[in-house]
Specification:
Layout: E1 4-15, H1 55-67, E2 72-73, E3 76-77, E4 80-83, E5 93-96, E6 103-111, E7 117-129, E8 133-137, E9 140-144, E10 151-157, H2 164-180, E11 193-203, E12 213-218, H3 221-240, E13 248-253, E14 258-264, E15 274-275, E16 282-283, H4 286-295, H5 300-311, H6 315-321, H7 325-338, H8 342-360, H9 371-382, H10 388-399, H11 405-411, H12 420-433, H13 435-442, H14 449-459, H15 466-478
Parallel strand pairs: 12-13
Antiparallel strand pairs: 1-10, 1-11, 2-6, 3-16, 4-5, 4-15, 6-7, 7-10, 8-9, 11-12, 13-14
The structure holds zinc ion.
Length: 479
């Protein structure tokens, strides 16, 4: 039994995918655009300007709050000013929410191996604006305000994670959910999903929470896992050596894979929060909440379970098929159109359709292949009309054609040859041209049958029905 256990809570910052910023009309696009081009007097906090709230931000935040099963969505939540000085915060304060957030008391059941799960509490979920970005270049500090006023949801979990691995699993699920709900692109590299982790340790069996450290500036899920693991190990070494854990803020250096101390952690009092006087409260009526709940799509974990149960496909398949929403829609529509074995459809989608999706770097819904077309191709392979090799090639052809799979097969002469007389003739030619192999086969090397079938496939341009070809070859060779 381990001596210590790790206690980890997360503060995630999620960039909502609105077109414009939270309090002005500037574009939210800040990835690889020239610095300080998407800015205006409002988001750079010039004197005399007034913010006005982008309603889409509230709608999207509400979708997330309901998907996170928030028990209490505030009918009137307030913005507050979080005061601090930093060069990339031109106003000198960040407009955030503080003790009157949009939603509290949510939860998320994180699936763990072997049917276990971890109950993650969502303590609160609030709306805020992003600050700018400081770039260090040639020993200079440069400021880019493009991110100022980009809308964020901050979501704070309880100290419910027990390992770095659970944290990584949660972030993968969160990213999946955000994309599924179409409220954030959740690309960590682009800063659209950020995560600070609070880490402490205690003796197994204890209830109390010890002093925690906070890890900041981690830009990928792998790095979050590495940083948390490294901090858990550091704290264990420290405590074993009789040292004391101090409330540090730690910075992750992803080049070197090490944590370093940024500063002693601020307390909330340092921010002198007060209500934002320039904005009205966010009013959320119970009917708006009810409408959001009723419009929530089936969520990925629920769909995963339903796929296993209803279609009888393995959990592994259900997991892959529900990684992304349009892929799961595509699978389900293909099963309906095919009307046969869902596992067979799953194999085609997981192997062949996913390969195309990755090659094209697109989504199932934008692949240009309709579920009905895939169902038709699978049906033709099952009926023996075409070989599975031709079926796979058809996927690509159908995408770039107005013709149906059946039309392509007919017009391009792709149907499988299973006509006995035609195949017998080809087989006879092959035997005649390869007397040595025939002799070897007759001498007992019956494994050569595969080679003969291969010759048949080559001779017929892949259109021979391999099963029929094999039977005919065997009967000629044995005869
Ligand atoms: Zn602006």
């Amino acid at each position: 039994m381990p001596e210590f256990e790790a206690i980890i809570g997360l503060e995630t910052h999620i960039q909502l995918n609105t077109d414009s910023k939270i309090f002005c009309a500037c574009s939210t696009d800040s990835w690889r655009v020239p610095p300080n081009t998407h800015i205006c007097p409002i988001c750079t906090g010039l004197p005399g300007v007034l913010p006005s709230l982008n309603e889409q931000v509230v709608e999207k935040a509400l979708i997330l709050a309901t998907a996170m099963n928030a028990d209490e969505i505030s009918q009137a939540s307030f913005f507050a000013r979080k005061n601090y000085f930093y060069p990339d915060l031109p106003k000198g304060y960040q407009i955030s929410q503080y003790d009157e957030p949009l939603a509290v008391n949510g939860s998320f059941e994180l699936p763990l191996p072997e049917g276990n799960s971890r109950h993650i509490t969502i303590i609160k979920l609030h709306i805020e604006e992003d600050a700018g970005k400081t770039v260090y270049k040639d020993a200079k500090r440069l400021i880019d305000f493009n991110r100022c006023g980009v809308p964020l949801v901050e979501m704070v979990t309880g100290p419910d994670f027990r390992s770095a691995d659970e944290v990584a699993k949660f972030l993968i699920r969160l990213r999946q959910l955000l994309r599924w709900l179409e409220i954030s692109d959740a690309d960590m590299e682009r800063g659209q999903l950020r995560c600070d982790a609070n880490v402490s340790i205690r003796n197994v069996g204890e209830d109390r929470l010890n002093t925690k450290t906070e890890i900041k500036n981690v830009n990928s899920i792998t790095n979050v896992r590495d940083a948390v693991q490294s901090e858990i190990e550091r704290q264990m070494r420290e405590v074993k050596a009789g040292g004391e854990i101090k409330a540090w803020t730690l910075d992750w250096d992803d080049q070197r894979g090490v944590l370093s101390k940024m500063r002693s952690k601020e307390t909330e009092a340092d921010y002198r929060y007060f209500r934002e006087p320039d904005l009205l409260p966010i009013q959320t009526s119970p009917s708006a909440v009810a409408a959001t709940v009723s419009q929530l799509p089936e969520l990925p974990l629920a769909r995963r379970s339903r796929f296993s149960e209803v279609y009888g496909i393995p959990e592994y398949d259900a997991e892959i098929l529900t990684e992304e929403r349009s892929l799961s829609d595509f699978f389900e529509a293909t099963v309906a159109a095919h009307g046969g074995n869902p596992k067979r459809v799953s194999n085609w989608v997981m192997n062949d359709v996913l390969r195309l999706i990755r090659e094209q770097d697109t989504l199932a819904g934008e692949l240009g292949l309709r579920p009905g077309e895939l169902a038709e191709i699978i049906g033709m392979v099952e009926a023996g009309t075409i070989s599975s090799g031709v079926g796979k090639e058809l996927l690509e052809q159908v995408r770039s054609s107005d013709r149906t799979p059946a039309q392509i097969v007919e017009e391009d002469g792709l149907a499988q040859v299973s006509d006995a007389s035609e195949l017998s003739e080809t087989a006879a030619h092959i035997l005649e041209a390869n007397p040595d192999q025939v002799a070897a086969y007759k001498g007992g090397k019956t494994g050569l049958i595969g080679w003969f079938v291969g010759q048949m496939m080559q001779e017929t341009g892949g259109q021979a029905d391999p099963k029929a070809a094999r039977e005919i070859l065997e009967s000629l060779l044995e005869g």
